[in-house]
Design a protein that fits this description.
205 residues, 5 strands, 2 domains, alpha+beta, 8 helices
């Protein structure tokens, strides 16, 4: 998938549409570790995205309140352009890159389908870049995807969600470094189509 061809229109640059865009989601993921990054540093992580496209989406996120400018500095002499432009270091506003309950409550069925499609497109792009990097080894790289049908009451669903959050939070706050690799962990939870009672699984791991 070539997400460089994605367009930005005024109707798609606020609410969940501001966040759930393949390129903007890549920028958000890159900045999620908390370290301020310049456009040049982000470009180095996303060489398949045209510089003009990357700058445009950075500005969209900044205008939408998702990103803030932590500091401004002069580029190093070897990177300074003839214009002498000031480099901006971007950071995520805490909690800004989240879909608000109010947005979900006011959404139409078409909104939900569009947002979910953008979410899936982002995952597909990330997986495509992973396998294109050469010799993918799912076991070695800790990569997997699976579908599991769970039989849960409403109370059990809440209990499971609490347990998953408690298990994940100690790892979510890990800073980069110390031999760590940034890993994308995505979840989808929705009612399954009616099936016979029992537990069914399918796995690609």
């Amino acid at each position: 998938m070539n997400d460089n061809k994605s367009t930005t229109t005024p109707a798609r640059t606020h609410g969940p549409d501001l966040i759930l865009h393949p390129i903007r989601m890549r920028l958000i993921v890159a900045l999620a570790a908390g370290a301020p990054m310049t456009a040049a540093e982000l470009q180095a992580r996303m060489p398949d995205v045209a510089p003009a496209t990357l700058y445009r989406h950075l500005n969209v996120l900044a205008r939408g309140g998702i990103l803030a400018v932590a500091e401004e500095s002069q580029p190093r002499p070897e990177k300074r352009r003839t214009r002498g432009a000031v480099e901006r270091h971007f950071v995520l506003h805490p909690g800004a890159a989240s879909v608000r309950p109010a947005d979900l409550a006011a959404a139409t069925p078409d909104d939900h389908v569009r947002w979910f499609a953008s979410f899936l497109a982002s995952l597909l792009g990330a997986f495509g870049r992973y396998v294109a990097a050469g010799a993918p080894d799912l076991v070695r790289d800790g990569v997997g995807y699976r579908e599991v049908v769970l039989q849960l009451s409403d109370a059990e669903l809440v209990q499971m969600s609490v347990a998953l959050n408690a298990a994940l939070m100690p790892f979510v706050v890990n800073p980069p470094g110390d031999g760590r690799t940034a890993r994308l962990f995505a979840t989808v939870l929705l009612p399954a189509d009616p099936t016979p009672a029992g537990h069914a699984t399918g796995s690609a791991e």
